[in-house]
Amino acid sequence: MSFENSLAVVSGGASGLGLGVVQRIVSQGGKVAILDLNQQTGQKIASQNPKQILFIKTDISQEQQVEKAIKRAVDSFGSINLAVGCAGILGAGKLLSKKGPMPLDYFKKVVDINLIGSFLLTRVAAMHMQKNQPDENGQNGVIIHTASIAAYEGQLGQVAYAATKSAIVGMMLPLAREFAKSGIRCMAIAPGIFETPMIENVPDDIRKALCDSVPFPSRFGKAEEFAQMVEQINDNPMLNGSVIRLDAAARLQ
After folding, report:
1. N- to C-terminal Cα distance for the chain?
2. Fewer Cβ atoms within 10 A, N terminus or C terminus of the chain?
3. CA 138 to CA 136: how far, in whole Å?
4. CATH of domain 3-246
5. pLDDT (average), residues 37-65
6. Tens-digit pLDDT profile for residues 202-238
7. Which residue in 247, 202, 195 sits closest to 220, CA to CA?
8. Catalytic residue among 55, 107, 119, 161
9. 161 is catalytic
């Protein structure tokens, strides 16, 4: 299953890693629906290539919005065979800080976007994918989520973020086993330190320190490198039920 034949939905596709995936799919002839809250940017991206890109304003944490968005993508494309979850927030903060305990609403917000959003995208996408005509490998679809190396080595102040990314890692094997009979593969990518809007305001001295902590190459990852990994997972039918670290051998301290 190549990107040329992809009929995809990408959450968080209006910026960062998600936009990198959208651009790579489109460059190879596939079609993609961007599910994102950033309407102005999303519509601008879609307007540049309306034959291949559809923008649907979507709060990925809201059940009905996700259901309606993916149905609209299916109605527009005829079906979907790839879903990539890139929507997420950093959710930085200590459980007990100088400002007091972390508010429950803040923790819930991180869980709702990062984890519940991944659950909803998976559930609705798989429901539509199982109706597809299998390809030459018996596949009906591929679902790929964005985890993080914080799932394994969460830093101080990442309690909410690391919890949600660990949960995504834990979902992959059970989902792959459940969807095997439907010909749907489930995978996740655990990026290291990537150049995304989440860290664009990091001061230069901290950026240098972060880059120096990465063994090789000692720099931030690029969105196109993440997109390349998505493509490789999509293309290789033996990749299923696991998580690939994309981190240049980085380990969070």
Report:
1. 38
2. C
3. 6
4. 3.40.50.720
5. 97
6. 667 767 777 778 878 888 899 999 999 999 999 999 9
7. 195
8. 161
9. yes
